[in-house]
Amino acid sequence: MKKQRHIRTRLTFTLIGLTCTVLIAVMLAFNFAVQGYIRSQVSTQLSEVMQLVSEDRGRGDPSQREERSFDKRPDPMTGAEFCAAVLAEDGSIVAVLHGDHVEAEALARCVREQNLPDDTQSKIVSVDSWTYAISLMQDPKVATNRLLIYADVTSITFFTKCVNIILLVVILAAVLISILLSRRFAKSFAKPVQTLSDFASDIGGGKLEPRELDFRDVEFRQLAESMNRMVCELNEAKQKQETFFQNASHELRTPLTSIRGNAEGILCDLIEPKSAGQVILSESDKLGGLVDDILYLSRIGKGRSEGAVEPVDLREVLSLCVSEQHTETNKEGLTFSFDFDEAPCLLPIREQDAQRLFGNLISNAVRYANSEIRLYCRRSGETITVRVADDGAGIAEEDLPHIFERFYKGKGGKHGIGLAIAKSVAETYHGTLRARNENGAVFEAVFPVNG
Fold first, then answer.
1. What percent of the chain has pLDDT over 90?
2. Are 53 and 69 in contact (CB under 8 A)?
3. In the chain, what are the domains?
4. Were 136 and a residue from 72, 120, 171, 307 both cysteine, which residue would form a disulfide, CB within 3.0 to 4.6 Å?
């Protein structure tokens, strides 16, 4: 389990880490740049001066001024001049060719103490509070002597130290500022989060009341709007659930009351058993059908329908559903007209689901038709359209928005589940199911062939 932290703590460490990383990177880059300058520029000039002094010493011409080797050769950045001295074999000063004798003596002592070899190139040494870049080589005039070439780089190293101190101060100031800013930012973040968290807790506790929340940040405002929409949807779902249980209880109570009344009539010899038995069987069938519809609606809503999905010819399903209504249609004197495509209208669907869908639509049409039911099934491009229409009075305008809701019953309705099942099946297979009035009620289902 990950260690939990407050937003303020995470924000503080993030800002401090980012700030310090940037400033430390700047400090390191600056120091590397200075060291690179000393290695490249100062070292190069030391080598050039050493070469010139060596050539002058090698000529052995006293008339040639060795000082000319140092003319116009100050370091362009620090302004320091390059100097030279001749050291004896024991490291003592033989002569100062250019520069201050005190500096030369101090550097000669440093060379002796560190026992530097004759081929030392561009070494940085510190003498007292001064910093020098030095190089050593054998004196071409006297083989036992050595030439010491040096330049004062104290100014550039001092400048580097000052900049480093400034950067350290800046880092400390940045850390303090980061702490202050993070506390302020964290407070501005934590307050809306806490407000939304309290809102979510209220929703979880069943307090489904929208809130007017105003946040400056777009993301928090969008989250608040989403939560308010969720509250409205939960309220609607809660109302539907209450309506569902009320209607389901009513639908179950009516046949149970009839069954109980007839059973008591038989026991008390008040009703002829055979007649009462027929009523009991009829009401039991109604109960069984209602329970089956409720269970089926629950299964399909959770994607647990039985059977395999395979291409089914919807024309055959419609014909089968019509034949199942044969007894009822003969009793009512209804006729069917068919407008089917000549080619098979194959749709990947579970056959049981297809029968439930179209069986409920046809059963509904049989209940309301006056004399004729029209069936339409055709494929157009990548969609299949099925229509079930009757020549009845049509659907009342106030019922149209609610016709597919569970347990919603219009005038003359059965138990308000059949059309809800039909719509759930259609949506399960990415189709749509709509109802309208057109010389009677028309139910139209449209399915994409490739899902």
1. 13
2. yes
3. 7-162 (3.30.450.20), 218-301 (1.10.287.130), 310-448 (3.30.565.10)
4. 120
Which H/E stretch holds residue 348?
Answer: strand 346-349
Say if residue 77's pLDDT is above 60: no
Secondary structure element (H or E) that encloses residue 340, with its range: strand 335-340
Under DSSP, the state recorded for 81 is P
What DSSP character marks residue 2? P
Q: Which range (51-65, 338-352, 357-371) has the least confidence?
A: 51-65
Instruction: Determine how many CB atoms are found less than 10 A away from the CB of residue 374.
Output: 19
| Spatial distance between the Cα atoms of 242 and 407, rounded to a whole number of angstroms | 11
372-380 vs 383-390, strand pairing mode:
antiparallel
For residue 89, pLDDT beyond 50? yes
Q: Are 300 and 283 in contact (CB under 8 A)?
A: no
Q: Rounded distance, CA 248 to CA 290, Å?
A: 9
Rounded CA gap, 209 and 231, in Å? 7
- For the segment 173-193, what is each residue's pLDDT rounded down to a tens digit? 878 887 787 777 777 777 888
Tell me which residue has tokens 């850390």: 175
Inform me whether the pLDDT recorded for 73 exceeds 90: no
Burial class (CB in 10 A: 0-12, 13-18, 19+), 50: buried
Secondary structure (3-state) at 162: helix
Contact 349, 309 (CB under 8 A): yes
Q: Residue 437: beta bridge partners?
A: 441
pLDDT at 255 over 90: no
CA atoms within a 13 Å half-sphere pointing along the CA-CB vector of 55 = 10
State the CB neighbour count (10 A cutoff) for residue 253: 10
- C-alpha 346, offset from chain centre: 40
Tokens of 346: 């194959």
429-446 pLDDT, tens digit per residue, is 899 999 999 989 999 999
Give dist(CA 207, CA 164) in Å, integer. Answer: 60
Taking a C-beta distance cutoff of 8 angstroms, is the pair 51, 70 a contact?
no
Q: Report d(CA 411, CA 397) in Å as an integer.
A: 12
What does the DSSP assignment read for 214-238? --SSHHHHHHHHHHHHHHHHHHHHH
Continuous segment of H or E residues that includes residue 290: helix 273-301
Q: Which residue has the higher pLDDT, 427 or 72?
A: 427
